[in-house]
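Incident log, support desk, overnight shift.

02:14 A customer reports that sequence design results differ from what the structure should imply. Their input is reproduced verbatim below. On-call engineer (initials T.W.) acknowledged and began investigating.
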């Protein structure tokens, strides 16, 4: 099992597409999940393996509300 598999199961359960999905990760075991979601963000303080899995990096780290910041940016229309 991978986190990408779990994400797929949630997408199926909630009937949402990959295009409607955001994911956040900070370690090597998040790579597949970050690549699976349309908006797969590695955290600013993520391990190098997670950052290599995506071009999207949060501006803030885990300790400074990095996930919340990106969700707020999406809802404000700053992220397409």
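02:41 Re-run completed on a clean worker. Output:
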């Amino acid at each position: 099992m991978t986190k990408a598999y779990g994400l797929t199961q949630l997408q199926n359960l909630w009937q949402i597409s990959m295009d409607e999905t955001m994911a956040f990760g900070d370690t090597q075991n998040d790579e597949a999940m970050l690549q699976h979601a349309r908006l797969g963000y590695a955290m600013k303080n993520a391990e190098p393996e997670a950052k290599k899995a995506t071009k999207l990096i949060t501006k803030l780290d885990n300790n400074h509300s990095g996930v919340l910041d990106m969700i707020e940016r999406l809802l404000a229309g700053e992220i397409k």
